[in-house]
Amino acid sequence: MFENFTDANLWFQWATLLYLTAFLLFLAAPILRNPGLWIVATLAIFGAFAMNTGLIADRWIEGGEPPFKTRYETNLLYPWCVSIVFFALLGLYRLKILGVFSAAISLIFFIYACAYPDLQLENMPPALQSGWFVPHVVAYFVAYAVLFASFVLAILALIFPGWRNTGSREGYEAYYNHAVNFGFTTLTIGLIFGAVWGKVAWGDYWSWDAKENWALITWLIYLAVIHMRYMSGWRGSRAAWVCIAGFCAVMFTYLGMKVLPAASGSLHVYQ
Amino acid sequence: MTESPRENDPLGTAIPSKKYYSFKLAFAAIGIVLVVCLIAQHVGKWDDFASGRTVTALVIMGILAAAAVAGAKHVYKLTTTYHFAVGVILTTIAAIVLGTWILQGAPEADYARIYGKDLPGFFRLFFLHDIFHSLWFNSLLVMMSLSLFLVLFKRKFYSQLSQLGFLFSHLGIIVILIGALIGTIGGGKWFIPMRIGESYTKAFASDDTLLDLGFALKLDDSRVEFYDDGRKIYAYRHDSDRPVKVVNLRKEHGEIAIPGTKVRLNVIESDKRRELPMRHELHLPGGADLAVEVGKTYPLPGGWQATILQFMPHFNYDMETKSAKNISGDPVNPALQVRIFRGETEKKQWLFANMPDYGHQQNHQHGADGTGDDPGKLVYHFHPPSAASVELEIVSPEGTKREFLAESDSEEHSNPLFLDNGKVMLILTNEPDIKDYWSDLSVWENGHQVLKKTIEVNDPLEYKGYMFYQSRWEATRRGVNSGIQVVKDPGLVVVYAGCAMICIGVAFIFYVRPRILRNKAKAIAEG
Question: Among A66, A194, B109, B289, which residue has the least CB neighbours within 10 Å?
């Protein structure tokens, strides 16, 4: 893997190092109680995001196509989306605690990408040459990133149920609900974009394909989470656990398809 | 609808009695419906609606429906609770999960191979091998629709602007399911394998029934474009089943290291030819490949045998002398004459590398497994005596040497180069990826061309309610096969409307409704 890292381009190397730096700084900041460390950590993750942007842009220019089709390429896209979501939540709700988790998961994905890089720039097959490709993929990865935030906030709600934000007085439960709302909205958009694209490409908006099924499962889980808010006894820790289960379904949908018996026949599964 | 109605229901709606707020009750009701549908599907003979069994099954379902109507008030109160909604959602999730873990609609042999002897029977008992077309699964969709529909009236989603999101999102799902039902009943999917210059008035369904289009569809031309990547060397390690390095000969320069090994390559010359022995192979019924030589006899499936009589690299049939002759030494039309025999039965035939279907005559009444009067289809593959290759300088623990790596023409017929005591394998290929393929289609009615369009993936042709999609593309020795998928879906617009409603509804609930309620609360506080 070290060999892969040294063979990788500078964008990749710097993005990895900066995500690592950001993670360490975000981890140290609450322990050392140094306000300056939070700022430096945020700058580090912003730097990593900038390198990540450069990496995606460089690959896009080199290939002449959006670099979102292989697992490796999406391993680079996901941290980019996670970083954007972190900046948004930091700006809206001052949730700097998300920084350590955002940096951590981004680093994990970069390490995984380093371990399993694409051996070559894959060509875009005819089916993916559509105006729907980018909106569908981006909607989904933004949703995955927001739902990661909801996952982290749900865990924090379980660990710190009494915590309140100094400004708004909202707790982690309110924040993960906000994240679920946005994540569910973008999941819905991604799902519908995919259905419409499938109809345009193959004549089928739904074919009970393994990936489509798991996308629907994920959507239904969060639909259940939203309905449970209105049910007595299903708020608080129970809702948090369902939210955590929802994110597990998200990750399985994204990365776990290969273990399914029907996966080899699916057009969605990374080969 | 909740224990604290005012908190989450500021507009005030009728509140059902608390006994319906029960997961136990919800799952019990869902379970009863699923079991009745399961029994009905087993009892009914659904390809014959007039049969007694089907009538019995319909009666069983009718009894369930009648019971629901008789207890309409209870059904209404139960199906409009959050518990029932979540119960249906969770059951649907479980069903779909099963549908992804259990093979769906696969041949029986696959179930036995993957799941053993006992489990397939269990799957068939509960229709787990075809969940998404089963009655019990579709009853979940019906229950979901019923719940969504009834809750519209329960919560009066149509009564206030702030409820518009709930109206759209709930109604949107129903609209999608209605659109899907319309498409299923009134539409269909067919396929036309088209050849250039040929017209088709019929399309094939998966059950081999034919659709009469009512007009002719002609394939005027078909083209493909490949990515121009050039040749590549794929390097494999003995401990990995996927390549560890791909060398693009156009892009890589200098010394190339193979990851995880002590082997390094330098490309000396990337455009050479290497002399290889000519090879003949027969692809047998059943899938095996057999390397053959002229003058030798080989066993075939079903007790048949084949003797290879002669080879002609440039076969030609002389119409005057009514005989076959070889007109040059170039492999323009490679042909192999074989004598196939079993007991008293024998025949001679020519097999052509460029026309794999020609050798299989009309003797196919017993299929292609060699058990009838026909040995089945034999396909002849010809491998020429030279191949494009790359000259490499290889540095390995064995020392430094120069080697040729000849191009492989397919995965089955490869010319690998083994290095470092077999720990590294190199394969050279020149199989460019398809960039795009197009078909020029024209529609003809009463001898006149009424429409012409070039279609490609993501850009179908539409005519008289039918959509024609570029589904497949294949170049064979006999020409281009352009696979066109034909789809009719009268419910599509309805489905799209439902999709739009859901998107609008969901966004409205989370981002517009809170604003409306805040403004309302502010107005109340001020006023």
Answer: B109
Instruction: For residue B8, list chain A residues with Cβ-Cβ distance below 8 A.
Output: 229-230
Tell me: pLDDT of B170 over 50.
yes
Amino acid B97 reads V
Q: Do the chains contact at B496 and A224, CB–CB below 8 Å?
A: no
Strand partners, B393: B266, B402
| Nearest neighbour of A181 by CB, restricted to B2, B244, B510 | B510
pLDDT in tens, B422-473: 788 888 888 888 899 999 999 999 999 999 999 999 899 999 999 999 988 8
| Residue of A10, A81, A90, A78 lying closest to A42 (CA atoms) | A90
CA of B102: which chain A residue's CA is closest?
A261
At B201, the pLDDT band (50, 70, 90 cuts) reads very high
pTM: 0.82
Spell out a b/e string for B338-364, using b for 16 or more CB atoms within 10 Å of the CB, else e: bebbeeeeeeebbbbbbbbeebbeeee
Q: What is the mean pLDDT of residues A49-76?
A: 94
**Of B168-177, B324-333, B359-368, B407-416, highest mean pLDDT:** B168-177
- Across the interface, whether the CB atoms of A200 and B460 are under 8 A apart is answered yes
In the 8-state DSSP scheme, what is residue B100? H
Please indicate whether, in this complex, the C-beta atoms of A232 and B2 are within 8 angstroms of each other.
Answer: yes
Q: Do the chains contact at A200 and B458, CB–CB below 8 Å?
A: yes
A185 contact residues in B (CB cutoff 8 A): 506-507, 510-511
Residues in B touching A92 (Cβ below 8 Å)? none
Question: What's the full length of chain B, in residues?
Answer: 527
Q: Which residue has the tokens 């009914």?
A: B44
List A residues 209-268 in contact with B (Cβ-Cβ < 8 A). 210, 213-214, 216-217, 220-221, 223-224, 227-232, 260-262
Cβ-proximal residues to B492 (8 Å cutoff; 6+ apart), any chain: A199, A205, B179, B183
* Interface probe, candidates B506, B511, B513, B515, chain A, greatest A C-beta count within 10 A: B506
CB B259 within 8 A of CB A4: yes
Facing residue for A220 by CB, picked from B93, B502, B506: B93
CB contact A134 to B (< 8 Å): no
Mean pLDDT of B357-384: 62
3-state secondary structure chain A: CHHHHHHCCHHHHHHHHHHHHHHHHHHHHHHHCCHHHHHHHHHHHHHHHHHHHHHHHHHHHHHCCCCCCCHHHHHHHHHHHHHHHHHHHHHHHCCCCHHHHHHHHHHHHHHHHHHCCCCCCCCCCHHHCCCCHHHHHHHHHHHHHHHHHHHHHHHHHHHCCCCCCCCCCCCHHHHHHHHHHHHHHHHHHHHHHHHHHHHHHHCCCCCCCHHHHHHHHHHHHHHHHHHHCCCCCCCCHHHHHHHHHHHHHHHHHHHCHHHCCCHHHCCCCCC
